[in-house]
Amino acid sequence: MILNKNYIYHQLDGQAVIVPTAAADFHGLVQGNKTLSVIAECLAHETTEEEIVDTLCERFDGDRELIKADVADAVKRLKEIGAIDE
Q: Which residues pair with 11 in a beta bridge?
């Protein structure tokens, strides 16, 4: 999976912002914390949920199963708005 070309990722003061272009069907703004920043960085290239979990576990302390559930939820939500290509 990879970030859809109709979405642009920005990091602003430690906050993640994913902005749809005019070509996207979604018209809104996705904002998040450092975790979403890492997810978006991973989605800049072809990746898997497991690779995103691995990256987050390397960068942050936390329970792997909780991180895995959070990644699954974030990916699900980004897919719902068309921000991720399979």
A: 16
* Count of C-beta atoms within a 10 Å radius of residue 35: 18
Distance CA 71, CA 61 (A): 15
Q: Which residue has the tokens 């642009």?
A: 8
Query: Which is nearest to 82 in space by CA: 4, 16, 27?
Result: 4
pTM listed for this prediction? 0.90
**18/21 Cα distance (integer angstroms):** 10
User: What is the Cα–Cα distance from 62 to 45, expressed in whole angstroms?
Assistant: 25
Condensed to tens digits (0 to 9), the pLDDT of residues 38-81 reads 999 999 999 999 999 999 999 999 999 999 999 999 999 999 99
DSSP result, 12-40: ETTEEEEEE-TTSS--S-EEE-HHHHHHH
